[in-house]
Amino acid sequence: MGISNTVLSRVLVVTPDYLGVQMAGPAIRAFEMAKVLSAHATVRLVSSVGSDLKHPAFDVHFANESRLRADAAWADVIVFQGHILASYPWLGDDEHVLVADIYDPMHLEVLEQSRGMEAEERLGLALETVEILNAQIERADFMLCASEKQRDFWLGQLSGLSRINPRSYDPDPTLRSLLDVAPFGISDQPAEQTAHGIRGIVPGISTTDKVIIWGGGIYNWFDPITLIRAVGDVAVDHPDVRLYFLGVKHPNPNVPEMAVSLKARELAEELGLLDRIVFFNSGWVPYDDRANYLLDADLGVSTHLEHLETAFSFRTRILDYLWAGLPIVSTDGDTFAEIIRDNGLGRVVPPQDVDALRAALLEILYVPSQHETARANVRSFAERFRWSIVLEPLVRFCLDPKAAADRVAGVVSVRRGELRDRDTRIAGLETSLSWRLMRPMRAITGLRHRRLR
User: Fold this and answer.
1) pTM as predicted
2) Under CATH, which number does the domain 10-185+387-444 receive?
3) SS3 assignment, position 398
4) pLDDT tens-digit series, residues 143-168
5) Chain-centre distance of CA 174, in angstroms?
6) What is the CATH topology of the domain spanning 210-385?
7) Every domain of the chain and the residues it spans
8) Cα separation of 425 and 435, whole Å?
């Protein structure tokens, strides 16, 4: 299969995350990409770790290396995430048209995710993660990221890797044909509740309580500690408040429970709030049942610490809040903080400020006019994040896929040339890294934008 300008119609979407009833962010994103693309092309959705998912519009399956080779030979375009290219470097062979979904700046995330590792091991993991991303950025024909702020960040990395050059710039000075924005989205179908997931179901939460939902996993870059303290303070005068953490155990078995998750439970117990005011769902909510939980809540929250990961993150659990029409209280510093503030979707508070967070929760939960105004704004704003809208750049590329102009011209950076002249660590990643390194690296792909389902 040679590179061609002919309109192509067979798209392979590959994720390193588990595809099933319970899915985390990477799998959800790949699944929704496949759904949208299937209206325009013949699609296969593949997981490199496992799948028990079915869909009437496209084939979904698990692929070992042999099966993946057959799928790749079938495809005109290959869309991939995470460490897929590092694990299967032959996907970078010139005949494949590749779309790298770099919505996850995992080389920033790993700085937090690897805390607690031995210093040498942590440094090795951080450097290898950078190389994983560099390899796909140097090879991809088209790339997607999650926000305009992220795009600015990635353009710097593209520049440093010589992907911004006369051959790529001259045909398109905007470089949108090389790197565009496709954020996480929300279902085109409205959220509908078929049964209660929290109210009157979870012991200790009644049908009349005020429910705050934490709609994702508890990871080291988040700050459930400040939130638990603030909710405890709210409960002094408002004993009907409830905080519900939607999931603790990640569906990907390679993703361990984070230290901050354990600390959050310990704090709730220490303050006498556990299973009275603060509740932890130890499982993971099925993808198709998420509306039953979200629509039992009055408010969605997302609190995080102040660091580099926050600056370029895109908290996709907030997309679920938009889908469910929930007012939002969030910590400042990430992309969504500005969106929430500018569009009146709720309240934004400084990091680790218990008093400010308590005041925001009180205002949105217990001042009806503020709650209803925020809810109305959320419902209106959410329309622009429908999957069919946010994935338009991907659909456009797959309808007329082309090898990147600089790749066709044979532009190779000095760095890339040196890597081609020897066996690189990327090409030998599966064997050169110990399992202790590979396991957390694989887990990274399940830790970003992991929306609980």
Assistant:
1) 0.80
2) 3.40.50.2000
3) helix
4) 999 999 999 999 999 999 999 999 99
5) 25
6) Rossmann fold (3.40.50)
7) 10-185+387-444, 210-385
8) 15
